[in-house]
Amino acid sequence: MTTIRFPPSLQRLSCLCYEHRMAILKVARLGHPVLRKATAPVSLREIQAPSFQKLIDDMIETMNEYDGVGLAADQVHESKQIAVLEVAANARYPDKPKVPLTVLINPKILPLTEEMEEDWEGCLSIPELRGRVPRYKSIRVQALDRNGQDLEFIAADFHARVIQHEWDHLNGKVYLDRMGDLSTLTFLTEFARYWLKS
Ligand SMILES: [Zn+2]
After folding, report:
1. I need a labelling partner for 121 at 20 to 30 A (CA). Which of 54, 185, 190, 193 fits?
2. What is the CA(92)–ligand 1 centre distance, in A?
3. How far apart are CA 96 and CA 93, in angstroms?
């Protein structure tokens, strides 16, 4: 066995490149069995692995690339309880309130009210479609963050909607399963033409 020794400057360079090389992941589309399987919880030990941290970075990169406001790990073929979400200036949801970048690992949600609100949802795994979905207006969220620290907060309205959508993914469900009926299901072109009233 031989060992190739790089000079220290090159070692640093290769290390930096590795750490910053993010990837846009392939998104599973409806019909892929991974989307219908409940995902597995993540251990604290797993969270510390560089490969796990890279997966989170890649999920964030993928969500941003496709203008998503949330992404669950099973949507990128990793059947694990991880979701990322962020609502910044977003072309797909221009009128929505901002949500800071959040990583949720092993999330649990508890409705704080029985009140449901219906609004439009889309999904990167179900391209080109939108539909109206009832969701709890307010929820308590418990999870681990990307450092394995406890995270607990209350989310309301669109923020709560995004988390419920991602939480469903982690349990093998998609938004179509939550629609009361499919009469509002529409392609994006028809959404803009018939449903988006000014
Ligand atoms: Zn989705």
Report:
1. 54
2. 13
3. 6
